[in-house]
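fyi for ur records
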Amino acid sequence: MNKNDTDSDRYKVQIYSGNRSGAYDAQEEFSSSFGNWDPSMQYETPNFKIWAGNFRTRLEADRALKKIKKKFPNAFIFKPKKS
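which gave:
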């Protein structure tokens, strides 16, 4: 195992990008539908984004995305930029 395993080496799913109230609604809806992946809210001017999951592999992320897309059709997988 790599001890320097950071979040930026993992995949996430973005389920929402838009205004603050829409982000809160999407976060709440996601939490009630998919309790096993904690959604987090990020702010990147000018949008609020809801990210979920912390997947080690692209395959894990793809499997999750398949389920998530049933409720959030615009969801997609990405790898956060290293800060």
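Residues 4 and 53 are 19 Å apart (CA to CA). thats all i got for now
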